[in-house]
Amino acid sequence: MTAHRFTPRGPLTGRIRVPGDKSISHRSLMFGALAVGTTTIRGLLEGEDVLATGRALEQMGAKVRKADDGTYSVDGVGVGTLLQPEGALDMGNSGTSTRLLMGLVASHGITAAFTGDASLSKRPMGRVIDPLSDMGASFTPSPGGTLPLITEGMQPAVPMTYRLPVASAQVKSAVLLAGLNTPGTTTVIEPVPTRDHTERMLRAFGVEVTVEEIDGEKHISVTGPVDMSPCDIEVPGDPSSAAFFAVAASIVPGSDLLIENVGLNPTRDGIFRVLKQMGADIDYLDPREVGGEPVADLQVRHAPLTGIEVDPDIAPSMIDEFPVLFVAAAMAKGATITSGLEELRVKESDRLSAMAAALKISGAKVQEREDGLLITGSSGEPLPGGGTVTTHLDHRIAMSMAVAGLASETGVEIDSTEPIATSFPNFTALIDEASA
Ligand SMILES: O=C(O)C1=C[C@@H](OP(=O)(O)O)[C@@H](O)[C@H](O)C1
Ligand SMILES: C=C(OP(=O)(O)O)C(=O)O
Prior knowledge:
Layout: E1 4-6, E2 13-17, H1 22-34, E3 36-42, H2 48-59, E4 63-66, E5 72-77, E6 89-90, H3 95-106, E7 111-115, H4 126-134, E8 138-142, E9 146-152, E10 161-163, H5 169-180, E11 184-190, H6 197-204, E12 209-214, E13 217-224, E14 232-234, H7 239-251, E15 256-263, H8 270-277, E16 281-290, E17 293-301, H9 322-331, E18 335-337, H10 351-361, E19 365-369, E20 372-376, E21 388-389, H11 395-406, E22 412-414, H12 427-434
C-alpha cells in the first residue's frame, strides 16, 4: 500500500480533461463483444474496472485491441455465441463488470466463475441472482450471496417482467442484457429512474428498446434474441470524475478551472445541480452531444457554499458523488443533511461510515445516521487535516479525501492511493496539472 499526503496548494486553474465515462466504457466493450463485426471505441476509460471487463470478454471469445492512436476495437462474437471461459473471470474491484456480465452469462449456454478483490467479495449479488434465477440461470454463490460465485447460464432462458426492488442501473442492465439472448420480451419496471446508458447504447447497436411510462414508472423492454450491429463509439468524459475537480475548484480559494467534455446525462448530473443549489459557481459552456450523450465544458470558480437539505429523490443521479459532496458540505456554511442513502453502505466500502470517519479525522463535524450524514460546515475555513484516512479499497473515498486535503491546513494522508486506478488513473497527475 502506498500512502500519500495530499497537501494544500494554490488555486486550481487552466483547463483539464477527465477520462472517459466508466459506465459507458463498460457497456461499449460488452456490446461490442455481442455485435458481429468490429466496434471502435474512442476515449475508453483505461481504469482497472473497465480493463477487467475487457479481459473477461476476451475470455469469452471477443478480441479487444488498442491502436497506436489510443482507439480501441472489439471484434464481437455475436449474441448467443459467447464462448465457455477457461479460467475464472477476475472482476477485481468492479461491481458493474460483475453484475452486467452475470446477466450476459445467464442466458448463454456457458458456465463462468466470478472472483474479485476483498471489497467486491463483500458486495451483495443476490440482487441480480434473484431475477436471473427466475430466467433459468443457476448460481452457486459464497455464503451471503457474494463472490466468489459460479453462474451457470440457461439457453434458451425464460423472459420475464421484473420490477426493480432497489434503484439500481446495474440490476436493470443485468436483466436487460440477459434478455438480449432470451426468446420473447423481457421487461424491467423502474419505479425510480437510474442511469440510462444501457438503453441509449443498445439502440446505437441496432437493438429495439421500448420505454413506456405507466403510472410514473418506466417499463423498459427488449425482445430477444437480438442481432447487434457494430458501432463507432465516442465516450464522453466521466461526470463522476469531473465531480472531484468541480468540488476542489469550488472550495480552494482563487480557483477558476475549465473541465472539458463532461457528460451531463440527466440521470448522472445530480452532483452539479446540488453544488449549484449550495452556491457553487458552475457554468456549462458549449453544450453539445457526444456519442448520443449530452456534454458540456464546465467552468468552475471558487465560491462560498451554503449547507442544504439534499432531496433524497436526486440520489440515483449522483449515487457515486456523495463522498465528494460530503467534502463540499464540510466546507460550507451551516448544516448539510442527506437521507435515503442506504445504498451507499453496499458500494466498494460502506461510504457513509467511511466518509464520516475520514472527515472526523480531518477535523470536520459529522454525525452519521442510518441513511445519511449530517455535516456542519466550516464556513469556508480550511479543515485542520492531520490524521491518516482509511480508504477501505474504495477509489471514491481516496479521491474525495484527496480533495479535502487540498483545502486543509496540514494536508490529508490517504492510507493507499492504489484504489484510484479503478476509475481515474491520472487523477493525481491532473491535480498537479491544475494546481501547478
Ligand atoms: O450501471 C452502472 O454503470 C453503475 C451503476 C451504479 O451502481 P448501482 O446500479 O448498484 O446503483 C453506480 O454506483 C456504479 O458506479 C455504476
Ligand atoms: C460503485 C462504483 O462502481 P462499481 O459498482 O462498478 O464497483 C463506483 O464507481 O463508485
